[in-house]
């Protein structure tokens, strides 16, 4: 039962989860992170670290986000590993790290 990154991460891309992952299963896409289901050991360490509550076990993904299970598997093969924390796309005020308002 691997974990899955879902819709709340898209456009935010907080990377707090990356630093606690013991198996380096996170992958970095342009606007969000993905979890490689082949590497995830189901330790759940990433779940409490996600400030937007975007990470779920694959069997508990909300129905409207079920397509993220397949998307994580596909994108984890196409995106590079991310091993260190980076600035999010959106800061705590709703502004992107580039200064553009992403809240709309």
UniProtKB/TrEMBL annotation:
Supply the SUPFAM superfamilies for this chain: 4Fe-4S ferredoxins
* Keyword Iron-sulfur in record: yes
* Record bears the keyword Manganese: no
Output one GO MF annotation: electron transfer activity
Where does this protein have compositionally biased stretches of type Polar residues? 94-104
Segments carrying the region annotation (Disordered) are 79-104
- Which keywords does this chain's UniProt record carry? 4Fe-4S, Electron transport, Iron, Iron-sulfur, Metal-binding, Transport
Instruction: Identify the cofactor(s).
Output: [4Fe-4S] cluster; [3Fe-4S] cluster
The residue ranges of the 4Fe-4S ferredoxin-type domain are 31-60
Q: Show the Pfam families listed in the entry.
A: Fer4
Q: Name the Gene3D superfamilies on file.
A: 3.30.70.20
Functionally, this protein is described as follows:
Ferredoxins are iron-sulfur proteins that transfer electrons in a wide variety of metabolic reactions.
Protein name per the record: Ferredoxin
Query: From which source organism is this entry?
Result: Blastopirellula marina
